[in-house]
Amino acid sequence: MTGIQHISTSRRIKDKFVQGLVYLAFALAVVPLVSVLWLVISNGLARFDLDFLTHSMRGIGARDANGGAYHAIIGTLEQVLLASLISVPIGLFTAIYLVEYGRGGRLSRSISFFVDVMTGVPSVVAGLFVFAFWILFLGFEFSGWAGALALSILMMPTVVRSAEEMLRLVPGDLREASYALGVAKWRTIVKVVLPTAFTGIVTGVMLAVARVAGETAPLLMTVFFTNSINNDPFTGPQMGLPLFVFDQAGRPNDTAVDRAWAGALTLILIVMLLNLVARLIAWWRAPARGR
Amino acid sequence: MTTHLKTRDGGPATRRSASRRSHGEGPFRFVSTAAGVVLLGIMAAIAVFLISEAIPALQANKGSFFTDLIWEPNSSGVFGIGALAFGTVLSSALALVIATPIAVGVALFISHYAPRRLAAPLGYLIDLLAAVPSVVYGLWGVAFLVPLLRTPSQWLNEHLGWFPLFAGEGAIGGKTMLAGAVVLAIMILPIIAAISREVFLQAPKMNEEAALALGATRWEMIRMAVLPFGRPGVISAAMLGLGRAMGETIAVALIFPATFDISFEILTPHANSIAANIANGFGEATEMGRGALIASGLVLFVITLLVNMGARMVINRRKEFARTGA
């Protein structure tokens, strides 16, 4: 027989069968995403209103239907901002060291390895560490700042990895052109390399912020709880939005559970918005890099 | 070292003289290096302070930390990690068994099955699964998944009850190990899928085309050219997922019923984990109780550290291999 032979039926069936399985796997993975979003939106809208966003839980009785997450939103914003102020400089300089200075040395290899390992530190362990170090050992009180310390530990490795990736994408020609003009290495990094990689780094930082904004566990043992508004992250317990959701979800009343869903909706909106904007920045920048 | 090239500041040949020539180079380099060292220091500090704050509680423990199944540091002063460590390992192993096949399927779908144009957005959709906060998964698990699993659990118990995992009498379904494991599986799926996808995309195009040219079907091509190449990557991705699942806290803290026993019956409401116990117990803990929780956190830190280092070593070895092989 000449020409191309037909594929035997059993092989074709097997091929189609696996194709079916692969499509099914993807469908299975999307189902929980849709289900989570649907449930959060449909349950969260019941209490998601101006009253919820502008009031705290101060003086709200166990069965009262009102009350809101204002104190928690303020807390989360301050904690995440402080965590970024700590982790972005450290993360960025570490990335600069890894890419520009440390090339392949023993120190840079061990830093690189432990940055990877650090991404796997459980968030609850980061919280326990800050509790053990900041509150037990150094004797400070529970505060938003302690929470920010814990969150910054979780942010750092993400910031380092994304910044490192972006710095490596900066073409060596650019650096060499700058050297050839007699510019010092550090000025080359500040004036040429960083501006070139800037949007990419911003994207990475925003994704890191989105990741830690939803962390609950480290806040439990650093920020503690409060029902009142505390604008000062450096003194006294604060609240965080994820913590608010956890707290309300654990209460037995339906009114509290409704608040938990509304809090979850607020949290998801913040996190998804950060994600979306970060991806849009990356996408908008992509053509320049893709050439 | 030859310096006769007379390049200007910072050129590769005269890196040493650059600091002498320009102000700022030295400090800048110092700050960069210091930032990296700070990172190493944090990792060391985590170990040091967890150990130092755990020691007093461990010394005051009236029971045996490694073998006891009781956790009563606040009242009787006896606490043991046994049941909690068991729950952590069992729940994350189950999660891994559920998540890995689906994640590999998702990775293959995006790398080899989906239309090119759609691959990137669909991959982003999977990444969004990782963006959903843990506490939201916990809420979803309690409100949606727990009721959903009740009927299948009862069916499994009735028909496959001889199998140890599905055994058990009395209350079947509810806040079970299975429900927690499914939520964990959903949470670790994106990371396993993302890494596997990267590895599958790196599979040598030549081999794939050669297999297709010899008349292989798409599945045969994947089995011969993609899967053997991707296996180490998938294994390390699964290990990273395992580490993630072990450390996952709030979702399982909301779902697990916080019992202290060693039970393989994943369909009955017996489940707990180290992380869940920390989250649930911290609020009411006394000084001794907090020390005990820190000790359990130390155990969790060590386990996840070992799993993660193992995974990273597999990946790094592969990376070096790929670089020299290319």
Automatic annotation (TrEMBL), chain A:
> SUPFAM superfamilies under this entry?
MetI-like
Keyword set for this entry? Cell membrane, Membrane, Phosphate transport, Transmembrane, Transmembrane helix, Transport
What is the topology of this protein in the membrane according to its UniProt annotation?
A: Multi-pass membrane protein
GO MF entries: phosphate transmembrane transporter activity
Q: What biological processes does GO assign it? A: phosphate ion transmembrane transport
Pfam families, alphabetized: BPD_transp_1
Give the transmembrane ranges. 21-41, 80-99, 111-136, 142-160, 192-213, 260-282
Q: Where in the cell is it found?
A: Cell membrane
Instruction: Tell me the InterPro entries matching this sequence.
Output: MetI-like, MetI-like_sf, Phosphate_PstA, Phosphate_transprt_permease
Signal sequence annotation: none
Write out the GO cellular component annotations.
plasma membrane
Family, according to the entry, reads as follows: Belongs to the binding-protein-dependent transport system permease family. CysTW subfamily.
Q: What does this protein do?
A: Part of the binding-protein-dependent transport system for phosphate; probably responsible for the translocation of the substrate across the membrane.
Identify this protein by name. Phosphate transport system permease protein PstA
Organism in which the protein naturally occurs: Nonomuraea phyllanthi
Automatic annotation (TrEMBL), chain B:
What GO biological process terms does the UniProt entry carry, in alphabetical order? phosphate ion transport
- What Pfam families does the annotation carry? BPD_transp_1 (PF00528)
Give one GO molecular function term. Answer: phosphate transmembrane transporter activity
Q: Does the keyword Chaperone apply?
A: no
Q: Where does this protein reside within or beyond the cell?
A: Cell membrane
Q: Which parts pass through the membrane?
A: 30-58, 78-110, 122-146, 177-196, 233-256, 292-311
Is the Cell membrane keyword given for this protein?
yes
**Keywords for this protein:** Cell membrane, Membrane, Phosphate transport, Transmembrane, Transmembrane helix, Transport
Membrane disposition: Multi-pass membrane protein
Per the record, its GO cellular-component terms are: plasma membrane
SUPFAM superfamilies for this protein: MetI-like
User: Which residue ranges are recorded for the region named Disordered?
Assistant: 1-24
Main subcellular location: membrane
Instruction: Spell out the family assignment given in the record's similarity comment.
Output: Belongs to the binding-protein-dependent transport system permease family. CysTW subfamily.
Query: Known PANTHER family for this protein?
Result: PHOSPHATE TRANSPORT SYSTEM PERMEASE PROTEIN PST, PHOSPHATE TRANSPORT SYSTEM PERMEASE PROTEIN PSTC
What's its job? Part of the binding-protein-dependent transport system for phosphate; probably responsible for the translocation of the substrate across the membrane.
**What protein am I looking at?**
Phosphate transport system permease protein
